[in-house]
Amino acid sequence: MPNSSSPQPKTKQINIIKLIILPLGIILLIIFCLAPLLWQFLTSIKVNQDISSLPNIYFPKRYTLDHYINLFTLRPLVHYIFNSTFVSITSTLLCLGIGTPAAYALARLTLRGEKIIIAGIIIITLFPFILIFLGLLELIKIIKLGNNYLSLIISYTAINLPLTLLVMRSFFQQLPPELEDAAKVDGYSTWQMLIQILLPLTVPALVTTGILTFIFAWNEFILALTFISQESLKTLPVAAAQLSGSLGKEIPYGSIAAMTVIGTFPLVLLVMFFQGKIVQGLTSGAVKG
């Protein structure tokens, strides 16, 4: 006769995993991911004595906003934020505007050497962009785009365009061709069909790709440091890196932490606002893959 009590230990183990281990693991993972940002935030509101004190004061009892105030009063922080925002948004829009029609063509049209084209795009996507740095530098010198927004916009668009092509092509391939056949019967042109019918269905892909492109452009440092030397045109990462040299021999840890928080906060808001679309886009891409 089978023992009716034998499944109970397994059930208890499953309940323990669901009620204790799984939530605890999620909490530890969140703490691990957010700890650097929390440390930067706490440093940005500490007084200088607490920042340099030994042993470290992790949770200060004295708070100040002087580090944030100094950034806006002693440095052209508004210009840095505008420069990063303008360059990032423009390059993102160009990537989506150029990459989306091209991705649709790769997904639906029968092209000669299509496999070679796709293989080339994949290779370019995996190729470290730092290795083309010298080539980009010489190109910027030749066309005389130093200290110009276009030097960064063109570079970021070229670097991120292959990723845009791959992601959008994958989503266009998921759409049933019957939609396009019905649209053609109704008299839609190719552009009307793409803009009015297909693009609304690929919003998750557009959002996901756009955010990835925006984050890269917002955080990029090497090209912005090299192509831009005019103070009023510098982006936020470059300004943050050069902040340590502005106050003599003293390293302004509080100001650096404050600028880090200011530079990270827009990205956090962006991801939180489009969280649902990002998850939907990544899930659809994973199903396709």
What this model shows, in words?
- By secondary structure, the protein is mainly alpha-helical.
- The protein contains 14 helices and no strands.
- α4 runs parallel beside α7 (149-174).
- The longest helix has 38 residues, at 7-44.
- The chain starts with 6 loop residues before the first helix and ends with a helix.
Describe the global form.
Answer: globular
| Cα-based radius of gyration, to the nearest Å | 25 Å
Q: How large is the share of residues in beta strands?
A: under 5%
Our count of helices gives 14
The largest sheet is:
none
Which structural class fits the helix and strand makeup?
mainly alpha
Low-confidence residue ranges: none
CA-to-CA gap between the ends?
A: 48 Å
Count all strands and give the number.
0
Listing every helix as H and every strand as E from the N terminus to the C terminus, the arrangement reads HHHHHHHHHHHHHH
Helix content percent band: over 70%
The chain-level mean pLDDT equals 82
